[in-house]
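Support request, priority: normal
Reporter: lab tech (M.K.)
Component: structure prediction queue

Hi team, I submitted a job for SGNH hydrolase-type esterase domain-containing protein from Limnobacter litoralis yesterday, and the status page still shows it as pending. I've pasted the exact input below so you can check whether something in the sequence is tripping the parser. The sequence length should be 212 residues. Please let me know if I need to resubmit or if it's stuck on your end.
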Amino acid sequence: MHQILVYSDSLSWGIIPTTRKRLEFDQRWPGVMELALARAGIKARVIEDCLNGRRTVWEDPFKPGRNGLQGLAQRIEIHSPLSLVILMLGTNDFQSMHDHNPWHSSQGIAALVGAIRNAPVEPGMPVPPVLVVAPPAMQTPKGPIAPKFVGGELKSVGLAKAYRTVCTELNCHFLDAATITESSKVDGVHLDADQHLVLGQEMAKVVQALLT
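Reply from support: The job had stalled in the queue. We restarted it manually and it finished. Here are the results:
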């Protein structure tokens, strides 16, 4: 049985755009991926650790605990042995209260990869490979979240390219989710239900190749 940790934010938590509601497990992409892997004969348990507002390595000035680096090594220890860790973060690095660019976020991703590889797992347990997924490019934010993300679609331009560079340097796997789907038509930031379905099905194919 493979254990796969998805370490992410609201895009993977499954928030329904313009609401505070959540898609069911089999509707959000980690669940879609697990079910697709099962149909392909791959026994895998997908562990969701997806926190709304999580950044790569920065705190939210209004809500505590959104720094993705804090406690990550311990999460790897808790869930080991792991066959794969999927990192899909970065969107919240570009909230309006932050003056970040894609290079900053790529360095945040590098720090997270380092924490995973240096986690204090039990002797003999594997250091899991890492798949970094660049979130789909942000569109103009709309609806209740617009003030929180105003300007994010401009600040985040080039994020996937920056992530790809870091992944090449660190020798870890990379996927640009924009090659599979786009951000929400409703709020411009998250994923709509049909996009979760498409992403989860394609992610299953990518993950299957990494596990076999």
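The radius of gyration is 16 Å. Residues 110 and 170 are 8 Å apart (CA to CA). Let us know if anything else looks off. Ticket resolved.
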